[in-house]
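Review form for a predicted model. The reviewer records the input and the model, then writes brief findings.
Reviewer: anonymous (R2)
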Amino acid sequence: MTGIVIFTAGREDAYQDYCRSVQEGYEPEELADFLPEDFTARASDDEPVRVWGTSVADKWRKVSRGDIVLVYRDGGFIAQARVLSKRDDLALAEHLYDLDGNPWDLDNPWQYLTFFTDFEEIDVDVAPFNELVDVDRFVKSRKR
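Model under review:
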């Protein structure tokens, strides 16, 4: 079953990380010292490696290849993509994210990495989306 994964890029530092790690992405050579040759970090040779890190392991473990990714910022979704692969990799996370100026918590580093394909910038207001998926009903059922 395909799931929906929502990543937030609300804080300015998170948005800057999104711009670098997802929107622009990385050339494979930039990450070659960290990824094994057999790891799938991109779907084709003509796209960059797009990756997002989180410190929330229990939610990250529920993410699966093929899930739809929505990136949330300022009341709407600014990008969509598909999950390509995942990797728990502290060394790569430390390489990807500028630790100075970021609210990097040494007890909760962003080591749980999700790699994307089929990236596309979008502009979707959250209100119609919430109505479409009936978020109010979902939130009420989770509180039980």
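Findings: The beta strands are 4-8, 50-54, 68-73, 76-88, 112-125.
Further findings: Residues 4-142 form a domain with the ph1033 like fold fold (CATH 3.10.590).
Recommendation: see findings above.
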